[in-house]
C-alpha cells in the first residue's frame, strides 16, 4: 500500500515538473495566429461566421470518412478466414467492396469528386 502510494506521488510530481518545464521552454505566443487556427478546417475561424462554406470541401471530407470507416470494417475479414468457409468469406468481402465501388461510381458520376469548378 505504501509503495503504490509513493509510486503515484512520484509519478504525479515527475509529470507535473515535466509539464511546467515544457510550458516555460516553449515559444508559443498568444498572438501567433497561424498556430492557434485549426488545421485544414476549410474556413478561417477568426473571420465572420456568415461567410459561405465550401460544399466541395465537405463532400470530399465525407467521402474520405466513408472510405476510412470501410477499411475498419474490412480488416476483421482477414482474421475470420479460418473460422468460416472460404465461399461465405469471399462472398461477404466482395459484396461489401461492390457496394463501396457502386457508391464511389455514383459520387464520381454526380461530379462530387471533381475538385475544379
TrEMBL record:
Gene3D superfamilies: NADH:ubiquinone/plastoquinone oxidoreductase, chain 3 (1.20.58.1610). It catalyses: a ubiquinone + NADH + 5 H(+)(in) = a ubiquinol + NAD(+) + 4 H(+)(out). Its EC number is 7.1.1.2. Keywords: Electron transport, Membrane, Mitochondrion, NAD, Respiratory chain, Translocase, Transmembrane, Transmembrane helix, Transport, Ubiquinone. GO terms for cellular component: mitochondrial membrane; NADH dehydrogenase complex. The chain crosses the membrane at residues 6-25, 57-80, 86-105. It is found in: Membrane; Mitochondrion membrane. It is a multi-pass membrane protein. Pfam families: Oxidored_q4 (PF00507). One of its GO terms (molecular function) is NADH dehydrogenase (ubiquinone) activity. It comes from the Eukaryota. Core subunit of the mitochondrial membrane respiratory chain NADH dehydrogenase (Complex I) which catalyzes electron transfer from NADH through the respiratory chain, using ubiquinone as an electron acceptor. Essential for the catalytic activity of complex I. Belongs to the complex I subunit 3 family. This is NADH-ubiquinone oxidoreductase chain 3.
Amino acid at each position: 500500500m505504501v509503495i503504490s502510494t509513493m509510486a503515484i506521488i512520484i509519478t504525479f510530481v515527475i509529470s507535473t515538473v515535466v509539464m511546467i518545464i515544457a510550458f516555460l521552454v516553449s515559444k508559443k505566443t498568444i498572438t501567433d495566429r497561424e498556430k492557434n487556427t485549426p488545421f485544414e478546417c476549410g474556413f478561417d475561424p477568426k473571420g465572420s461566421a456568415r461567410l459561405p462554406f465550401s460544399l466541395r470541401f465537405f463532400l470530399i471530407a465525407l467521402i474520405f470518412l466513408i472510405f476510412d470507416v470501410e477499411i475498419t470494417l474490412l480488416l476483421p475479414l482477414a482474421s475470420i478466414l479460418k473460422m468460416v468457409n472460404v465461399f461465405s468469406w469471399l462472398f461477404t468481402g466482395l459484396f461489401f467492396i461492390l457496394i463501396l465501388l457502386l457508391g464511389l461510381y455514383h459520387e464520381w458520376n454526380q461530379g462530387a469528386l471533381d475538385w475544379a469548378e
